[in-house]
Automatic annotation (TrEMBL):
PANTHER family, per the entry: MANNOSYL-D-GLYCERATE TRANSPORT/METABOLISM SYSTEM REPRESSOR MNGR-RELATED (PTHR44846), MANNOSYL-D-GLYCERATE TRANSPORT_METABOLISM SYSTEM REPRESSOR MNGR-RELATED (PTHR44846:SF1)
One GO BP annotation of this record: negative regulation of DNA-templated transcription
Organism placement in taxonomy: Bacteria, Bacillati, Bacillota, Bacilli, Bacillales
The protein's name: GntR family transcriptional regulator
InterPro entries according to UniProt: Bact_HTH_transcr_reg, Chorismate_lyase_/UTRA_dom_sf, Tscrpt_reg_HTH_GntR, UTRA, WH-like_DNA-bd_sf, WH_DNA-bd_sf
Domain named HTH gntR-type: residues: 10-78
SMART domains per UniProt: HTH_GNTR, UTRA
Keywords: DNA-binding, Transcription, Transcription regulation
Organism superkingdom: Bacteria
GO molecular function: DNA binding; DNA-binding transcription factor activity
A Pfam family recorded for this sequence: GntR
Length: 244
C-alpha cells in the first residue's frame, strides 16, 4: 500500500480513509472482501494501530465497511436505492439494475384465509388464498424474504414454475389482469432467527419490514405482501415537494 504523507496537513487517519475509499471506488477492494488486520495496516502504513482503528471506525460509521466479531472488517455491499414512485415487481426491478432475479421457494400452499384476509380481499367463507413464502435473490444473493397472499380465484392455475419468473408480467400478459396501484408501509425492524437463517444475517441486525397491498386497475385487491429486506442492501428514496 502507498505510504501516507506524514508532512501533509491532512490528519493521518483521514489519509488512510481516503486511500481505502479509493481502493473501494476503483474495485481493488470489492464488496465482501476482508481488510488486512489493524496490525498489518499499521505496519504497512508505518503508523499506530490507534490511527488505523480511527480510520476504520469512521468508514464503518459511513457504512463503507462493517465488522464481524471474531472474523474481521469487510467491505460493505452497495445499497440498492429504491424509489417509492412506480409499481414494479422485484424481478423487473433487479433486471433494470443489470442483475439476474431469482427465487428460492420456501412454502407454497392453498389455505383458508384468516378473518383479516377475508376482510381485505372481500372473500367468501369457502374462498381460498395462495400463501407463498420465498427468498428473493439478486444474482444468487439473498435480498429479501417475502410472504404473499393472493386469492386463488384470481389466478386459478398458479404454479411453482410460474413463480420462478415475474408474477406481475405473467398476470398482465397471460391472465389479462391489469395492475393499477399499491399502498406500501415501511418499518425499521430487527432480524428474527428465521430472517437470519434465510438472509445470511445475524439475529438482531437491522432490516426493513415492508407491507404492500396491490390493487388492480378497477380498484379490487390483488395481493398482500409482507417482506423483510436486508438493511445492509436496501434504502428507499422519495422526492418531497413543499405544500403550498
Amino acid at each position: 500500500m502507498k505510504l501516507v504523507n506524514k508532512k501533509s496537513p491532512l490528519p493521518l487517519y483521514y489519509q488512510i480513509e481516503e486511500h481505502i475509499k479509493a481502493m473501494i471506488d476503483s474495485g481493488d477492494l470489492k464488496p465482501g472482501d476482508v481488510l488486512p488486520s489493524e496490525r498489518e495496516l499499521a505496519e504497512q502504513f508505518t503508523i499506530s494501530r490507534m490511527t488505523v482503528r480511527q480510520a476504520i471506525t469512521n468508514l464503518v460509521n459511513k457504512n463503507l465497511l462493517y465488522r464481524k466479531k471474531g472474523s474481521g472488517t469487510y467491505v460493505s455491499q452497495h445499497k440498492f436505492e429504491q424509489s417509492l414512485h412506480g409499481l414494479t415487481s422485484f424481478s423487473e426491478d433487479m433486471r433494470r439494475r443489470g442483475l439476474e432475479p431469482g427465487n428460492k421457494l420456501i412454502h407454497f400452499e392453498l389455505s383458508s384465509p384468516t378473518d383479516d384476509l377475508i376482510h381485505h380481499f372481500g372473500l367468501k367463507g369457502d374462498d381460498l388464498v395462495y400463501k407463498i413464502k420465498r427468498i428473493r435473490l439478486a444474482s444468487n444473493e439473498p435480498m429479501a424474504m417475502e410472504t404473499t397472499y393472493i386469492p386463488v380465484k384470481l389466478i386459478p392455475g398458479l404454479s411453482q414454475e410460474i413463480l420462478s419468473h415475474s408474477l406481475y408480467q405473467y398476470v398482465e400478459e397471460e391472465i389479462g389482469l391489469k395492475l393499477g396501484h399499491a399502498s406500501q408501509s415501511i418499518e425499521a425492524a430487527a432480524a428474527t432467527e428465521d430472517d437470519a437463517k434465510h438472509l445470511k444475517l445475524d439475529r438482531g441486525e437491522p432490516v426493513l419490514f415492508i407491507q404492500r397491498e396491490t390493487f388492480l386497475e378497477d380498484g379490487s385487491p390483488f395481493e398482500l405482501v409482507k417482506s423483510t429486506y436486508r438493511g445492509d442492501k436496501y434504502k428507499y428514496k422519495m422526492n418531497i415537494e413543499r405544500l403550498r
